[in-house]
Design goal:
By secondary structure, the protein is of the alpha+beta class. It has three domains: about 140 residues, no CATH class; about 160 residues, no CATH class; about 80 residues, no CATH class. The chain is about 50% helix and about 10% strand. The strands form three sheets. It has a four-stranded mixed sheet, with no helix packed on it. The protein has a two-stranded antiparallel ribbon with strand order 1-4. A hairpin with a 4-residue loop joins β2 and β3. The radius of gyration is 28 Å and the shape is elongated.
Length: about 425
């Protein structure tokens, strides 16, 4: 006989006490922990390993060891009373603690752990200890072979690292701001973080681990210490890295648009820019008084002046062609134009705050303050997320792309499309201005 519906069987009209209080379901910090939890709940361990094989697994390491032994990772096991053995704890990105000075974290793939693990190492790996998605995984040779199979199936035999798919929106649902000024400042860097497949709102940022973040800052920015970071961060927040020439020509067009209240023709724009340059050169004094005293300023030769003017005229042509492509690709509406490229610096300033935190060149409060400043500066210059995005992308293209419309353009265009269409996007859920 089948089980009766409680509302249809004998005694259905009886009065029962209040239902027992149930604990709310666990809220996974990100999609990775949610997928691990779901697989564990189903008892689907192949699916659990598939998730592990496509995400970074972070290991806590003493900072002095990482700094003294570049490229080396030290296993720091702990005693687990459940197994009665030493175990190695690894964590997925969403459950990492906020960055502190020591320890730091190193990120590696499941395949990497399978490759470097030795028989003398702990007999168990514990994933996300103390959370509902925790798993205690035997680490014997046969089990490590399973790790390798899942890694190779997910990422390929030659892929030693683990990289999230680019141009996907990844959100930290627990532990990351979703609304308010900090979230707004983080969203100003979202083009970079969506493009890289990173959590867009992870204020307590670890990136790919301490060593990786330091290496990235040194390679791309020449930032090798705290003072370097402070200087670079401040320049970005003041929009001091974008070209003065780019901003000059855009300012000329903004002035013309206000004056004539309509579209600005390219040749008119060029002529006014040229007249402005010639006027400024004529008005410049050959002798200036500076804090150091009287300084003689070398005047431009006629050839140098004409070269500058020709360069500005070419730049206006480049900007016009980029904007035409932007309109065709939906970055700009018909008749719209880019107001400023300062967004290129403000977006990177939001990223620099987090990169500096991951590299331990700053504290979490310092990084958060920089993110807030980036958001406020962007709001003062732009009118909308779309306006901001067009400025950021034009700056990136003028710096890197050279009118090839290649990877430097296409990758950030894809990120823009994600951020303007995904219902969970911060650009669709955080007002540009409250």
């Amino acid at each position: 006989m089948g089980m009766q519906n409680p509302g249809e069987g004998p005694g259905a009209s009886a009065t029962f006490g209040p239902p027992p209080q149930m604990d709310p379901p666990w809220q996974a910090p990100s999609a990775v922990e949610h997928e691990l939890y779901e697989a564990k709940t189903r008892g689907d361990w192949p699916a659990y390993f598939d998730v592990l094989a496509t995400t970074d697994l972070y290991l806590a390491v003493p900072r002095h060891h990482v700094e003294a032994n570049p490229g080396s990772v030290l296993f720091m096991p702990y005693w687990n009373p459940r197994t009665g053995t030493q175990c190695l704890a690894v964590f997925t990105e969403g459950v990492l603690p906020a960055p502190v000075e020591d320890p730091v974290f190193c990120a590696n793939s499941l395949g990497w752990y399978a490759r470097v693990w030795e028989d003398r190492d702990p007999p168990f790996m514990v994933v996300n200890p103390g959370t509902p998605c925790e798993a205690v995984l035997p680490a014997g040779p046969a089990y490590r072979a399973t790790w390798t199979r899942h890694h190779e199936r997910a990422l390929g035999a030659d892929n030693g690292g683990c990289h999230h798919e680019h141009n996907q929106l990844r959100t930290l649902r627990i532990g990351g701001p979703l609304h308010g000024p900090v979230a707004h400042g983080l969203a100003c860097g979202a083009l970079l973080f969506v493009r890289n497949g990173e959590l867009w709102n992870a204020m307590a940022y670890h990136g790919k681990g301490f060593a990786h973040e330091r290496g990235r800052l040194k390679e791309w920015w020449g930032v090798a210490g705290r003072q370097d970071w402070l200087s670079t961060q401040e320049r970005l927040l003041k929009a001091d890295m974008v070209s003065d020439v780019w901003e000059f020509v855009l300012k000329v067009r903004r002035s013309l648009a206000r004056e004539f209240a309509g579209p600005v023709g390219v040749e008119h724009w060029r002529e006014v820019a040229e007249r402005t340059i010639r006027h400024n050169i004529e008005q410049a004094a050959e002798v200036r008084i500076t804090p150091e005293g009287v300084t003689k300023v070398e005047a431009l030769t006629p050839g140098e002046l004409e070269s500058q003017i020709a360069g500005v005229r070419r730049l206006i042509g480049r900007i016009t062609r980029y904007e035409a492509r932007f309109r065709a690709d939906g970055l700009l509406e018909d008749g719209a134009y880019v107001r400023s490229v300062e967004a290129w610096d403000y977006g990177r300033a939001s990223g620099m705050a987090r990169w500096g935190l991951g590299a331990r060149f700053c504290t979490l409060p310092e990084a958060e303050n920089a993110v807030l400043r980036a958001g406020r500066a962007a709001q003062a210059t732009y009118r909308s997320w779309q306006d901001f995005s067009a400025g950021f992308i034009l700056g990136r293209c003028l710096h890197f792309d050279d009118e090839e419309f290649g990877e430097w353009y296409q990758s950030v265009l894809d990120a823009h499309r994600v951020l303007t269409t995904d219902p969970a996007s911060p650009w669709l859920n955080i007002p540009w201005k409250e």
